[in-house]
């Protein structure tokens, strides 16, 4: 029976909601199947397997950072793999999603966009002036072929 208080609704539904609208009881914790959670050794083996697979994906993403490839995307994929089993990874992933959403909202602000366009234009003008001065002084020769 709903008496109008939020506490009763929370106790009836079985889980409180977090700030982002997700149910806290469903969000955090292991998502392993129930038959795996019921056996301690099997669940520990499952967690080790998830950790190893997630670690391999994160390491591949870190390797891709200086090399060609979607490094950050792969790192976040590894974090998502870890988040299926570990609460700490779920919290890090939730924090990262929140920060990316906030940054997206700030970047879409018209004042910020105008400032970014102005700064980019100033940077392009400075680079064009520097290239122009270099070409005026040395021509189209590369720096290692300049004769003094």
Characterise this structure.
- The chain has 148 residues and is mostly helical.
- Helices cover 70% and strands 0% of the residues.
- It has helices at 6-13, 24-27, 34-37, 40-64, 71-83, 87-107, 110-138.
- Helix 5 (71-83) crosses helix 6 (87-107).
List its traits.
70% helix, disordered N terminus, mainly alpha, 148 residues
Topology:
Blueprint lengths: L5 H8 L10 H4 L6 H4 L2 H25 L6 H13 L3 H21 L2 H29 L10
Helix pairs in contact: 4-5, 5-6
Helical residue percent? over 70%
Low-confidence stretches: 1-25
Secondary-structure element series: HHHHHHH
Strand content: under 5%
Computed Rg: 26 Å
N/C terminus separation: 91 Å
What overall geometry do the principal axes of the alpha carbons give? Answer: elongated
Mean pLDDT metric: 79
Count of alpha and pi helical runs: 7
Classification by helices and strands: mainly alpha
Number of strands: 0
**Biggest sheet, open or closed, and with what strands and sense?**
none
């Amino acid at each position: 029976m709903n008496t109008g208080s939020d506490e009763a609704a929370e106790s009836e539904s079985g889980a409180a909601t977090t700030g982002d609208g997700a149910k806290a009881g469903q969000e955090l914790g292991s998502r392993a199947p129930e038959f795996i959670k019921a056996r301690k050794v099997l669940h520990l083996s499952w967690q080790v397997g998830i950790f190893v697979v997630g670690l391999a994906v994160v390491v591949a993403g870190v390797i891709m950072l200086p090399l060609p490839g979607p490094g950050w995307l792969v790192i976040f994929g590894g974090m998502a793999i870890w988040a299926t089993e570990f609460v700490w990874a779920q919290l890090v992933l939730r924090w990262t999603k929140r920060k990316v959403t906030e940054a997206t909202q700030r970047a879409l602000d018209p004042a910020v966009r105008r400032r970014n366009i102005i700064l980019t234009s100033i940077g392009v003008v400075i680079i064009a002036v520097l290239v122009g001065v270099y070409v005026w002084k040395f021509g189209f020769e590369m720096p290692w072929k300049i004769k003094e």
